[in-house]
């Protein structure tokens, strides 16, 4: 038996380039005894805790695979509840950074989390329309509340009462009595989705934000006297017992519902506060004291309101009364009438607009904290991978908003569209629409940031002291890394400069653009105007005119051939010296977006928007094999140095490794949560860097662990089976209706395995019991004393 070919496994090494993800919310956390300094933000599947004063990452709460969608700190500040895309919830300790508790109950992503006043219970709302209340101390689910017809957007506990209020995209706000797990009141005054809830004025007012520019305010009246539900019925039924029995059950239940609602609270609309923004409310929240209310829409403006206390309202009323009396007295003296003394406070006077905070980009979420001195701190999570902190004094006559800090250096503002490794495998180049960054691979620190135009392709100049960027406007930008300055900008193409390839002799490079041209460039030294020394520059030497837009260009390793991918779905091969046509590779149904040539020049692999990868021979241009590679467009492809293994990445969020000799899929690297735009392999093949639409850069490392394909396939089949078992729907019992309460747990592969273990234990118990009875019968027949053989029965049964 021949020895099978061994491959080495690539594993995820690090996540960097992301400051905060967009799906979750930002919150202040108490760390090292300090409040208002540290913020927790979602970062793909992890949670990063940033020091806003220093702009440094101080703690990482490690996640598993799913993206973080919701965060909530415990009232004591020691724990952090984290909700994930798959519906699971983990509670982390902020002291150790470890996830102590895991809750599984939701079938879709968690949209909201909230602790009660003591921190013993946690409520979660999800896109699966369910609300679940969890017991944090016993690490178990208490009950599931059903009633919403669309995703739950917010859930809040009341501090003094055992009540819960929830809002959803079904336009409803529901009140739940947690003693009876019953929805006793539904507010139906909204015409659009309700996106946010907030309690103010010591929970005597509820403010709701919907998909319009109106913040609706509701007055809450708590009824202290708990009346007996049977008492009104006894007063009503004055006739004979036979007449009382004739009352229908429907009337009784409706009357009980009305009495329960009236027994707990009354909720009436008090009015509305108009926002400046015309779009929907994205986040509506108050600070911990409930004194400051803030909200924002889909724009970059955070509107801040101040809720007056009862003492302040009384003082204002007295002042208003004095003015009204004075005015009425003057009027009565003129008209000889008695003064009237009726003065009312308007809603706009009780909830006053303080100011608006204008952020540098669209706001995704925010958090507030009001210091004992009256200073308000607001931290904003922005859409462009930035965290900003602002300070203002809401009690001032004209509040001045001051930006205290801004965390930007750890990532790009937009998606990274090109990556490159230096020749020594140490430096990584990443370029986006606004900047180029150089990262140290070992420390993952950003060591250079340089402003640029929209970058599409890049390379390190031989020597690793300069870099070249190709832009969307067709320009070539040459940067010096030592000084971080732009040396030269050349107008290379009339359209987008899609691809750049360094020549194997390292004396020049070739570019291809949307102007249907392939241009050849050589490096040269020119005299610098600012100094006596010479500096690097480039000059154009030749041009190759084609009939279609050029999408990708690649040199063969011996520099004899040049491969050009065109918009007509073909790849043309030319001789480099004479630029004569050699081969045409046709077969893709959509344009070839990426390609690469193996180190020995024998194979060329092409990846297309038709989701296929084709492997061709460069000698005759014959297609060796066509592989269905990804579930969406193949965005990037690169061979591993000194081998016929290559990597592809696609819009299906996956990176895959292939063997071009055996035409086999070797390994899938999963981790990105959005489309993967590009990847770069280090020259020695030990590292991969990839970038994605989720703003993250991921580093993958080749380990010494051998990868056996048969075992890999078996593990993949097991994972698929476990996933299918966990997703199976619960059997519906005939005649059974789904009530508004239910069990908190859900079917997972762990619960299935636990149930199987219990069934095995029960079966073993039955077998041992049968053996015991048989033994007793034999002993009885023989007339011997019966001894119980209990040593065979497991102790846990």
Structure description:
This protein has 797 residues and is mostly beta strands. Helices cover 14% and strands 46% of the residues. The chain contains 7 helices and 57 strands. It has a 5-stranded antiparallel sheet, with no helix packed on it. A 4-stranded antiparallel sheet has the order 1-56-55-54, covered by helices on one side. Strand 52 (654-659) and strand 53 form a beta hairpin. The protein is flat and about 100 Å long. The two termini are 49 Å apart. Mean pLDDT is 87; it is low at 225-250 and 732-737. It is found in: Nucleus, Nucleolus. Residues 228-254, 722-741 are annotated as: Disordered.
Largest beta sheet, briefly?
A: 5 strands, antiparallel
Shape: flat
SS-derived structural category: mainly beta
Number of helices: 7
* Assembly form of the protein: single chain
Mean pLDDT: 87
Strands, count? 57
**Span between N and C termini?**
49 Å
Please mark out the parts with pLDDT under 50 across 5 or more consecutive residues, or reply none.
Answer: 225-250, 732-737
Helix content: 10-25%
Strand residues, percent: over 45%
Rounded to the nearest angstrom, the radius of gyration is: 34 Å
| Spatial order of strands in the largest sheet | 10-11-12-13-57
What are the SSEs and their pairings?
Elements: E1 7-16, E2 27-31, E3 34-43, E4 46-51, E5 56-61, E6 68-73, E7 79-84, E8 88-93, E9 99-104, E10 110-115, E11 121-126, E12 131-135, E13 140-145, E14 152-157, E15 163-168, E16 173-177, E17 182-187, E18 194-200, E19 205-210, E20 214-222, H1 230-236, H2 241-245, H3 249-264, E21 265-274, E22 283-286, E23 292-296, E24 301-307, H4 310-335, H5 347-350, E25 351-358, E26 363-370, E27 376-382, E28 386-392, E29 402-407, E30 418-421, E31 427-431, E32 435-440, E33 446-451, E34 455-460, E35 466-471, E36 475-480, E37 485-491, E38 497-502, E39 508-513, E40 517-527, E41 534-545, E42 550-555, E43 561-566, E44 571-575, E45 581-585, E46 592-597, E47 603-608, E48 612-617, E49 623-628, E50 634-639, E51 645-650, E52 654-659, E53 664-670, E54 676-681, E55 687-692, E56 697-707, H6 709-727, E57 741-742, H7 749-782
Antiparallel strand pairs: 1-56, 2-3, 3-4, 4-5, 6-7, 7-8, 8-9, 10-11, 11-12, 12-13, 13-57, 14-15, 15-16, 16-17, 18-19, 19-20, 20-21, 22-23, 23-24, 24-25, 26-27, 27-28, 28-29, 30-31, 31-32, 32-33, 34-35, 35-36, 36-37, 38-39, 39-40, 40-41, 42-43, 43-44, 44-45, 46-47, 47-48, 48-49, 50-51, 51-52, ...
Subunit structure: Part of the small subunit (SSU) processome, composed of more than 70 proteins and the RNA chaperone small nucleolar RNA (snoRNA) U3.
Keywords: Isopeptide bond, Nucleus, Phosphoprotein, Repeat, Ubl conjugation, WD repeat
Family: Belongs to the WD repeat WDR3/UTP12 family.
